[in-house]
Amino acid sequence: MRLSAHEIAIERGGRRILSGVSFEARAGQALLLVGPNGSGKSTLLRAIAGFLPLASGTFALEGGAAEAGIGEQAHYLGHADALKSALTAGENLAFWADALGGDSARAAWIAALDRLGLAHVADFPARALSAGQKRRVALARLLVAPRPIWLLDEPTTALDAAAQRRFAVVMRAHLAGGGLILAATHAPLDIDDAARLTLGEAAATGAAA
Fold it and tell me: Is residue 208 part of a domain?
């Protein structure tokens, strides 16, 4: 699988956010989007997911499901945890598994929570969880409905050091299985050989070899 972008330009509210952005990322590889606040990292991820239109340029995916678009083969995890406060952690994951075509059985979401050190809160309402626990429940969504492309916007926000290490193991396993990760981040993600795409005030062009 190979995801590429060619001369991407994106406008929001009449203002050009990104211009001339190109990259290539292959299966088994992470591409880290770096740059100052406002440089367009989140905007680029949302555009790849299909949430924002392009002013110009193209995205292309080789080696994925021919009948599905890029967004249908990707998980997008933004700043919001997207949890219903009245539902338990497990019920939230069951909801997302159903919505995303994954496995909503209890065993599946218990296993997902366990990989992130949260099996013990499976039956706790989301409103009772700490910010870091909510973030880990949101991250567990990546595991209950497998998709090859992960689009992660500051995924380790609110995570303590131990939780960051656990999630690094999850990311490395996804890459080892042929997955692909694009992550906007200000913090190290502990992924070996990750490529970097730097965005800034000027048009940015980068490639993942």
Answer: no
